[in-house]
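Batch manifest line 315
LIGAND: adenosine-5'-diphosphate
JOB: complex structure
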Amino acid sequence: MTGPAEKEVLLEVKDLNITYGTGRRAYDAVQQANFVIYKGETFGLVGESGSGKTTIGRAILRILPTSGGEILYKGQKINGRISRALDKQLTKEIQMIFQDPQSSLNERAKVSYIVGEGLQNVRPDLTPAQREEKVRQALLDVGLLPEFASRFPHEFSGGQRQRIGIARALIVEPEFIVADEPISALDMSIRAQVLNLLRHLQKERGITYLFIAHDLSVMRYISDRIAVIHRGRILELADAEELVTHPLHPYTRSLLSAIPMPDPRREREKTLLVYDPAIHDYSAEAPQWRQLRPRHWVLCSESEAAQWISQEERS
Ligand code: ADP
Ligand code: MG
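JOB STATUS: finished
ARTIFACT:
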């Protein structure tokens, strides 16, 4: 058993706020987010569309400015102003895989350019021939033919395009990858292949993932730990199996009730839980982040804590 104290923290998000727009147009897309990601793990961030998942991912990639709190990578603050040296390091070490392979590849560029582009910044020392060799290897690493380098994105299927996106991220040998719903735009039949590829790459290279999804069944399969986000707030965080077998927050319970069950009889008899945020009365007591079970945290008031625990014990 490795306790959390023995694991190395790679990324830490502290009281993070992200606001779109300013003044009367300001919209708080992420509020008071807190979590750590350990080196080598897959940290799942799950929530419905519009809950702020991509916003968090883009802030970590420094594509979006933050409005409060800190993002620490290997103990160094990476939001706000950073040094050129740190910027260079992060460009190499942190990469993103995008949700939609149909729109995330430059249609006018050849695959060799798309996949090799990141090397221009990170490995300016390489000769064109060495760069070409790296592109060949990256394509092989994701299960594509090296000959694809001279083709254009439109010649490929969705799954192949996503593999090209993965090769592009991998080529700079990143340590940390934000995978933003990497399979949700793909056909059902090829989702497992792409998931397995991501798992295989992690095993082989010790890559750490922030894996974003809206689907808890995918999360359970791929993640070590899972955080549940709703309307910009993280509501629950636990080890993957613990979260799925002992969900405490009513929102997490509703997400879980929506997962299809393999047993058709139980599928017909189960109740779909609907989450209504109005059930919380936080006027008298503001919710707090509480650990209610081992390594299992929930955002709740004291009375909710008692209620949700006894409810979970009865179910
Ligand atoms: P998710 O990835 O969980 O679907 P997002 O992070 O994309 O959610 O969006 C979170 C919220 O922020 C949504 O309400 C969305 O409408 C809003 N939002 C996203 N991008 C922008 C933007 N560029 N300007 C204003 N609001 C935005
Ligand atoms: Mg998104």
